[in-house]
Design goal:
alpha/beta; TIM Barrel; eight-stranded parallel β-sheet; two-stranded antiparallel sheet; about 35% helix; binds NADP nicotinamide-adenine-dinucleotide phosphate
């Protein structure tokens, strides 16, 4: 979203200001695992309460998301500058090709082409590391009925434990790729702001030091998994210190019912006559985060957007804050990626 006339723009809880001066909506629609996103994205954008869409090249649905944005703009329901569109650079697009060309530039062109939009509001680095565990995980996560992807069950994959980091990958590849992303961004460029996902506190501090040394823009947004059971306190503190907007993903537990069925969440929901989803999203908003809950269901979309008309008490907030344990501070992911995928190895 552009910041053409800041004085005329009323800031409230439904948007946050980025380091670039532009605004990011507090509520956007997530699209992970959404194979046909055009319908749901159009529905969300038509509601007016969703300020934008979160997609990624690896979701393989950028084209459908872009179609929804164009359709809404063509119908004159909303202007392009009032819709925030964010996509992500997949980890295999870090670094250079064998002929020393930037993989990032090619990936960005491909995302823009698929979205069929002139620009994106935010371009996020999807993953900090080389992801050896992502392509060759030592274990396979199991999904069960009760806990979904949060199930504790794991299948070992023989042989993958031996697989090490791709030999061409180095931590400086991540920093150089970020630099290219940063240099490709600006108010009149095809990328308006840049950010990162899934960075640990250590990786984020390293990146911020690098930005200061190289005199390039700091990430405007950090998008990490965050909810009361993985509150990402340290990363949020760093973001707050540097004026970086923290965007929470998996706010609802990513499809499992560990969070949505938690007794504490349920009792707070009951006391406010709200749903568990609304309590979890409101917790994030009251901590200053922006959110990207995913649903394809219109009634749930409406439900998830009704988070700006009530307030949790400080007692409610403390009860929710206490759902995490000590171990959760040392990990970056819980429900979405395996602990074994946790990126802070590199
Ligand atoms: N950067 C990253 O690495 C990363 C990783 C994961 C996710 N993300 C982004 O963050 C977004 C959100 O995360 P997520 O999709 O993993 O999980 P989420 O938003 O926590 O949860 C989505 C799940 O909750 C269900 N749901 C939504 N609203 C509900 C409600 N009111 N009541 C009951 N169930 C409800 C959805 O089912 P229905 O669709 O059936 O309603 C879906 O199964 C993603 O879509 C993606 O855009 C980013």
């Amino acid at each position: 979203m552009e910041n053409k006339d800041p004085k005329r723009r009323k800031i409230d809880e439904t948007m946050r200001r980025l380091l670039t001066g532009a605004y990011i909506p507090t509520l956007q629609l997530g699209t992970y695992r959404m194979k046909t996103p055009t319908g749901p994205c159009k529905t969300a954008l038509s509601l007016g309460t969703y300020g934008g869409i979160d997609t990624a090249s690896i979701y393989n649905n950028e084209a459908g998301c872009g179609q929804a944005v164009k359709s809404i703009v063509n119908s004159k329901t909303r202007k392009r500058e009032d819709i925030f569109v964010q996509t992500k650079l997949w980890r295999s697009h870090q670094g250079l090709t064998k002929s020393s060309k930037s993989k990032m530039q090619a990936a960005l062109r491909s995302s823009l082409k698929k979205l069929d939009l002139e620009y994106i509001d935010l371009f996020l680095m999807h993953w900090p590391g080389p992801g050896r565990h992502l392509s060759k995980p030592p274990v396979r996560k199991c999904q069960d009925k009760k806990f979904g992807w949060a199930s504790a069950d794991r299948d070992e994959i023989p042989g993958n434990d031996e697989v090490r980091v791709p030999t061409e990958w180095t931590p400086s590849m991540r920093l150089q790729t970020y630099k290219e992303m940063a240099l490709s961004s600006g108010p009149d460029k095809t990328v308006r702001a840049v950010g990162v996902c899934n960075f640990s506190a250590r990786q984020l501090e390293e990146l911020i030091r690098f930005c200061e040394k190289e005199n390039i823009v700091k990430p405007a947004v950090v998008q990490n998994e965050c909810h009361p059971m993985l509150p990402a306190v340290r990363v949020r503190e760093i973001c707050s210190k540097h004026g970086i907007v923290f965007q929470a993903y998996a706010s609802l537990g990513s499809g499992g019912d560990t969070l949505m069925n938690h007794e504490v969440v349920k009792s707070i929901a009951k006391s406010h006559e709200r749903t568990c989803a609304q309590i979890l999203l409101r917790w994030a908003v009251q901590h200053g985060m922006v959110v990207v809950p995913k649903t394809t269901n219109k009634a749930r979309m409406v439900e998830n957007s009704r988070i700006f008309d009530f307030t949790l008490t400080s007692k409610d907030m403390s009860k929710l804050d206490s759902l995490s344990n000590k171990q959760s501070e040392s990990q970056t992911t819980k429900f979405c990626w395996l602990r074994e995928h946790d990126p802070d190895h590199y």
